Amino acid sequence: MSNPSKERQILVEQLKQVAKGLAETFAPFCEVVVHDLLHADQAIVAIHNNLSGREEGDPATELGLARIADESYPQVIANYPNQFADGRQVKSTSIGIKDSGGRYVAALCLNVDLTLFGTLQTMLGQFVSTDGTTGVKESLDPPGADGIRQRIDQFAARLATTPRALKAAERRALMSELREAGSMEVRRAMEIVALHLGVSRATVYNDAK
């Protein structure tokens, strides 16, 4: 492009559209910021899902200044630990954008607030935990069910595939192998096989013929 200034303006404007799309996809957990590195004193030209409290017109970050000073600075820095001004922990990714001359002109930054995810992780941990102090152990699986699933997994592994990806001919060979091993004598064997293969019981009955 003959006009470097025009090229840089177009890059920044296109980056704003990318930022808008990412922000709408990852709302409300991810702040998306566009920095114009050619105007470091007023670098922020777009900010979506504002989690940091910054505003358009705020200056470039230390990372932005580093890119301005050094064209060889890494273009992509992903998933590095960061922190908002109020102390909230953040996971950040910064992507530098260069013009055709190799000069940094802009940056796209994504900041994920980890606070909510930490709370959610705690809640999920509490929900899935079981009380191991009762001394009671119970399985709702019929005896031998684990053995069937293990044989299916081993059969699929030999074919370098997964149980749910087995083709009809492969399922028929599997059913023959399970039958010869006596696995089909297990209570609810057809149902166990169907669930593990991700097919209907009718399909399993047909494959077993």
Compact description:
With 209 residues, this protein is an alpha+beta fold. The chain contains seven helices and five strands.
What are its keywords?
alpha+beta; five-stranded antiparallel sheet; elongated; 5 strands; Beta-Lactamase; 209 residues; 2 domains
Textual characterization of the structure:
With 209 residues, the chain is an alpha+beta fold. The protein folds into two domains: 4-116, PAS domain (Beta-Lactamase); 145-208. The relative contact order is 0.10. Helix 4 (145-158) packs across helix 6 (189-197) and helix 6 (189-197) crosses helix 7. The chain is elongated. The chain is 43% helix and 19% strand. The longest helix is centred in the N-terminal third of the chain and has 23 residues, at 4-26. It is built from seven helices and five strands, in the order H-E-E-H-E-E-E-H-H-H-H-H. The chain has helices spanning 4-26, 62-69, 114-128, 145-158, 168-180, 189-197, 201-208; strands at residues 30-36, 44-48, 76-83, 89-98, 104-113. It has a five-stranded antiparallel beta sheet, sandwiched between helices.
Structural Rg: 28 Å
Low-confidence stretches: none
**Run of helices and strands:** HEEHEEEHHHHH
| Strand percentage | 15-25%
Shape: elongated
- Assign the CATH topology of the largest domain: Beta-Lactamase
How many distinct domains?
Answer: 2
Overall average residue pLDDT: 89
Biggest sheet strand line-up: 2-1-5-4-3
Task: Briefly note the structural class of the backbone.
Answer: alpha+beta
| Helical segment count | 7
CATH superfamily of the largest domain: PAS domain
Termini gap: 68 Å
